[in-house]
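Final report, closing paragraph on structural work. Over the funding period we assembled a curated collection of sequence-structure pairs, and we close with a single example.
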Amino acid sequence: MASVQRTPAGESKRFVDRPGAGSPLPAGPSAGLSEAEAKRRLAERGGASEIGGSRSYASIVRANVFTVFNLILACFGTITLIFGDWRDALFLGVLVANTAIGITQEVRAKRALDRLALLVAPHATVLRDGSTRSVAATEVVEGDLVAVQAGDQIVADGQLSRAVDLRLDESILTGESDSVPRATGEQLRSGAFVAEGSGSYRVTAVGAGSYAGRLLGEARSFRHPRSPLEQAVNRLLICLVALVVLLGAVLGYSLWHRHTPLHEAVATATAGVVSLVPEGLVVLISLAYAVASIRMARRGVLSQQLNAIESLASVDVICLDKTGTLTEAALRVAAATPAEGVTDLDRQLGRYGASSSLRNGTVEAIADAYPSDRATAIAEVPFNSRRKWSAVQLADATLVLGAPEHFALGELSASAERERQAGRRVLALARSTSDLAAVDPDAGVPPCSVIGLLVLGERLRPQIRETIAFFRSEGVDLKVLSGDNPQTVAAIAADVGIEIRKTTDGASLPADPEALRRLALETTVIGRITPEGKRAVVESLRDAGRYVAMVGDGVNDVPALKASRLAIAQGTGTQMAKAVADLVLIDGDFGAVPELVHQGRQALRNLQRVARLYLTKSSFAAFLILVIGTTSTAYPLLPRHLSLAAAIAIGIPTFFLALAPSSGPWQPAGFGRQATRFALPAGMIIGVGVVASYLFALHDLGYAVREARVVATTVLVITGLYLVYEIEGGSLRRRTAVGAMCLVLFGLYVAAIVLPPTRHFFALEVPNPGMAITALLGSALAIVALYLSGYPASSSADGGTSQTQPDYSDSTATSSRGER
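Its predicted structure, as stored:
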């Protein structure tokens, strides 16, 4: 039998309300600590600890410094400094610059997110000096009496002193997703959440002696499996590491076999291997994520998931809870209709609102509309989303409040149906003579007679219609999952602009997975749905290959939030919902999401485009090793030449283009294949142009190696800038801006040749007419070949992809967050 709160006969019980939400505690001189004693214990512990809402500074430094590619570059840089020309170690400066940029941006993002994290950090309601107050979780001390209700987090270890239908979600601690009932006297561990009911517990351990030090970390420690883009990039990087090892070994053996002098061998090996490394690609991805997080923070959105920006871009289905998302969370009493012969409906509503110790939005709305003196509650049945009714037993009657379908409404049925069709929430108030202590709440409402209907109204959120219109224009499917009546939910959904294809009652959800999948895909509105039903629908959509986002704010939304690929919680929601979310809307402004989706898709498009340039460089480097590195011909480029060309044709432009506005198709799935199909032929074609012009200048025109290398470097710069221009095609305005940038960058290369200090540093020569013509002919050869191979802007901008939605139904990408 579910638990019922009961006060022994003849014993008076006074309640103290928690401000805002209200979770009363029994008052008394020995119930809680005094404020002075709490401060003394906190001081003995060393004060309140800081809240760590995001990754540490040490982890940021490690992630940006200790990478495989940084190790490769550092090793070859050290070898070059010891055995070669120090100027050929210029790439070490690029390594340091990339690392510094990555760390700086991630630290900026961390600080912005930590400021927001303070706003959603767990708090506790403690009883001190005979009254309740809310304190930060880090200020709770041993001996405190802490009150909890549905959605709250257990912030410290303790012993349960009161339990009213209390069930805990302990998945953070045990990995089990089902809620667990807890009774008075049992031990609680910090990190769990209250799934149902209410209670209070005496704190026995905090800080290092309990789970309390891991509260935020545990709640947010779970991370999705790597996103599709991250998986693709990781696979590419693994392949490139294998390529570096393999081709590096081939090149090293060739140099050793030819007895190449050490100075020349170091320069050749460094030029060959270092150019294989896409040194800026990982930094660019981290930079894009960090900048996106900062932009989110400015919009009042806390990103608790590094790859949430990509998830925003990938979402094709959004499941919404009605209350708090489409409508404002605060309820108001719109009307109350008494049953025939009932004259005291207002009085009974006032008694119910004043006497219920378990405060929620409905109770607060009733209490505001019908002020009344508090009466002693002998026993209570708390509301939960499974039962959809609650009750308060007073001295002369038991008042039952719940969904109309639980009661025989009689002549009120027509009125209830009419209000539901108008999109309002309807509840029935009934009177019973039952003793709640003898009632099993899960067996249904006790025998009672309806005394009236209560109509609650909700206001639509500001700009919600514009937000829904944006998602529809972007091809995002919208579904509303609510515990309210289906007709009521459908009326609200239609009012905000959601196209209603099919409406279903949550009680009729099929058990067969395939049937449920079909229903989930076809249905727009599902009302009277349980938390488990929400989760099942989200999982069905996910298993059907859809990229699902769930927006919610209450405990009943948590299972679905965990099952979704992107969980978005309202900042005004419960601690439990905020703790499992990837994104938290601090101000509860759902209207901020469209701009975030736009930014996410922009970042994803840009990363897909600029990544091709880095992979083209690796493809070009592999071509040079195989064609020139294994022969006795002097290598066409020194490491410093490659550093200069890579900075002008890749590093500098991609730094800006990765963060620039963009438009066009986007598709995270298949990124690796698309990028490779682009980079392999492009790198080889550019390699043909570079090698052909280099060999022609060296052997046919009789130029010295130094002069022939200037020709090769010039061809590499020109063809690289051509790729930048074509990849970043698009509108005339954008092409003009990118073209101007490419001309400026080529001007930098010309300046490096003309100015004596840079010319000497980079081992360049001012080209004579023969060298200039050879470089232009080699560049033209490569550019024409690129054009004929399908690399103009019309096809390269999207890499041959379509704007269809990708399939994310593989088992890795769609794992739920049950262990969060």
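Confidence is low (pLDDT under 50) at residues 5-30, 212-225, 793-820. The two ends are 30 Å apart (CA to CA). We thank the funder for supporting this effort.
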